[in-house]
């Protein structure tokens, strides 16, 4: 054996035993490792601790492998077996072909790699100041920016980590949780996928500041040196520091991935730190709301009580009032005085200060506070404008208010159904901001007599064959009586569904189908209507029947509303198909 080969072999054997890792204490060392300490004094006496595997095993000191029994099966994904060092990281960026696409920067990470994409400046002369976005691949498919290749229902697919994460609720991760040396935690574990930090039921984020040692339930608390990203950044790579003896970044730990999610929270793709005992922190000063939507922001006046606030105005179209809701924060950012607002009529300024919002209300009526009302036969629209004045107005200048137009559209049709079955009693026995409101609120009631004064109680109603049904329909007050209620179509079915295709018509196109059996007492005169009908065996069986009526509101200012039943009306059935029902039943024989 040549001398140079013997020298090389000795060098390799020495290298196999020289791998060691810096640690915070001897407790972090593997049971098959030795703890090495050294004391030095740089004005402040400090102790350096490191872990090194015993001579008969290999590893980094935190994990030691038996060389005789271990092989590639001992290593996880992204690592390979080395007889001299144990499981070591695979540098995917050095592979051929390279794992990242054209124009992307490959960066190796422990057990994996990242493909980084530089953000495109808005102007060719502008400098790139935003962080690199990380792009992941799923097999041969490159995931869109902001998505990762995750296991969903047993299959790997490009997925938004904001929708697929694991809650991390360890109370000891809190930045105000101090621990003694003996019970300190190390995050050297198998991390899978993405995580969201919680303290109790409150969402929090990693601290972006130095945390004192022995906090967060560990020796050296891990904090995020890279600022948290914006939503537009997608997924970024964040640099992580661990606070210890010599300062805030004594340990430069392995980088992690971070994404900003709708609702003002963050998710993290954690990895094992490069030493122990280190653990990721949860900042108690960053409690955020858990229920905020993408159109809301989580805010707090005292950093204790948090609430979700809208990011922009919202319109509520009610039965009696229209309500414009604007966050006070938005008004303040625009330099507007929240209490100065009024509608098109300056004398109308009804408003409510509701927590972090201002509510501006107007009654749902024509010619009230400048309301403009338009109809097209099937819908009615109420429109107005809200004016809000600047906060810095002085008497020396004419204030120009911000105008916020808004409109609410309501359908004029509905379908009513009796809330109980009718049973046959046999012998011997329902432009700026523009929004749609709810349909008209109509009710239908079955009465005992033609005076419509005594309704039947709730529940099934039993009537003899040939007896008269007296049906009353009413609608809630709408615009001071401008609109009147019309019976469009009334019919029986054998089921509670108004959409049952098997129907027996009583009233069709606003008029009785058979005047011997149906009489319309009132329709198109007010916001009440009623009719009477004889009860017969309409479907050839004695099954219970249900009564439904399709109704609509008619604008007295724009069209004649009283039905003309002197001749059959050729009214389009397509128009009535947009109406919604009300029902009563079952009705049975006796």
Automatic annotation (TrEMBL):
It comes from Lates calcarifer (Barramundi). Residues 316-572 form the ZP domain. InterPro entries: D8C_UMOD/GP2/OIT3-like (IPR057774), EGF-like_Ca-bd_dom (IPR001881), EGF_Ca-bd_CS (IPR018097), ZP-C (IPR055355), ZP-C_dom (IPR042235), ZP_chr (IPR048290), ZP_dom (IPR001507). SMART domains: EGF_CA, ZP. GO terms for biological process: developmental process. It comes from the Eukaryota. This is Uromodulin. The keyword Disulfide bond applies. Residues 1-21 form the signal peptide. CDD domains: EGF_CA. SUPFAM superfamilies: EGF/Laminin (SSF57196). Keywords: Disulfide bond, EGF-like domain, Glycoprotein, Signal. GO terms for molecular function: calcium ion binding. The lineage of its organism: Eukaryota, Metazoa, Chordata, Craniata, Vertebrata. Transmembrane segments: none annotated.
């Amino acid at each position: 054996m040549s001398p140079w080969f013997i020298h090389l072999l000795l060098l390799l054997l020495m290298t196999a035993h020289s791998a060691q890792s810096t640690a915070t204490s001897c407790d972090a060392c593997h049971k098959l490792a030795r703890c090495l300490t050294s004391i030095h004094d740089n004005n402040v006496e400090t102790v350096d601790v490191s872990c090194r595997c015993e001579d008969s095993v290999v590893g980094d000191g935190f994990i030691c492998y038996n060389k005789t029994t271990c092989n590639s099966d001992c290593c996880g994904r992204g690592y390979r077996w080395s007889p001299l060092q144990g499981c070591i990281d695979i540098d995917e960026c050095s592979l051929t072909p390279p794992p990242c696409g054209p124009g992307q920067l490959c960066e190796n990470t422990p057990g994996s790699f990242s493909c980084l994409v530089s953000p495109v400046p808005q102007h060719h002369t502008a400098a790139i100041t935003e962080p690199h976005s990380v792009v992941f691949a799923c097999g041969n498919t490159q995931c869109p920016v902001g998505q990762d290749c995750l296991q969903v229902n047993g299959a790997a697919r490009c997925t938004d980590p904001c929708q697929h994460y694991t809650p991390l609720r360890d109370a000891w991760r809190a930045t105000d949780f101090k621990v003694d040396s003996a019970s300190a935690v190390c995050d050297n574990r198998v991390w899978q996928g993405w995580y969201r930090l919680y303290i109790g039921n409150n969402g929090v984020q990693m601290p972006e500041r130095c945390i004192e040692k022995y906090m967060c339930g560990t020796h050296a608390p891990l904090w995020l040196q890279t600022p948290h990203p914006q939503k537009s950044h997608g997924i970024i790579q964040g640099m992580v520091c661990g606070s210890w003896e010599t300062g805030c970044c004594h340990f430069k730990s392995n980088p992690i991935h971070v994404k900003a999610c709708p609702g003002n929270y963050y998710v993290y793709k954690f990895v094992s730190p490069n030493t122990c005992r280190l653990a990721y922190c949860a900042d108690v000063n960053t409690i955020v709301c858990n229920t905020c939507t993408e159109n809301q922001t989580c805010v707090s006046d005292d950093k204790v009580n948090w609430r979700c606030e809208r990011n922009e105005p919202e319109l509520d179209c009610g039965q009696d009032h229209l309500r414009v809701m604007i966050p006070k924060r938005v008004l303040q950012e625009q330099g507007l005085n929240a209490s100065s607002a009024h509608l098109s009529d300056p004398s109308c300024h009804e408003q409510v200060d509701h927590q972090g919002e201002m509510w501006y209300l107007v009654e749902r009526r024509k010619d009230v506070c400048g309301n403009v009302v338009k109809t097209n036969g099937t819908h009615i629209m109420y429109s107005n404008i809200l004016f809000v004045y600047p906060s810095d107005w002085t008497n020396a200048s004419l204030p120009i208010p911000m105008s916020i137009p808004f409109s609410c559209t309501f359908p004029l049709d509905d379908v009513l159904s009796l809330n109980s079955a009718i049973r046959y009693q046999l012998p011997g026995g329902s432009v700026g901001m523009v929004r749609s409101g709810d349909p008209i609120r109509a009710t239908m009631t079955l009465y005992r007599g033609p005076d419509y004064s005594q309704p039947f109680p709730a529940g099934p109603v039993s009537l003899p064959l040939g007896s008269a049904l007296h049906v009353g329909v009413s609608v809630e007050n709408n615009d001071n009586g401008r609109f009147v209620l019309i019976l469009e179509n009334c019919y029986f079915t054998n089921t509670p569904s108004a959409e049952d295709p098997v129907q027996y018509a009583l009233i069709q196109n606003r008029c009785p189908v058979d005047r011997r059996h149906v009489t319309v007492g009132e329709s198109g005169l007010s916001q009440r209507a009623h009719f009477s009908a004889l009860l017969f065996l309409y479907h050839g069986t004695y099954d219970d029947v249900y009564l439904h009526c399709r109704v609509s509101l008619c604008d007295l200012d724009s069209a004649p509303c009283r039905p003309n039943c002197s001749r059959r009306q050729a009214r389009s059935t397509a128009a009535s198909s947009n109406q919604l029902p009300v029902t009563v039943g079952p009705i049975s024989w006796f």
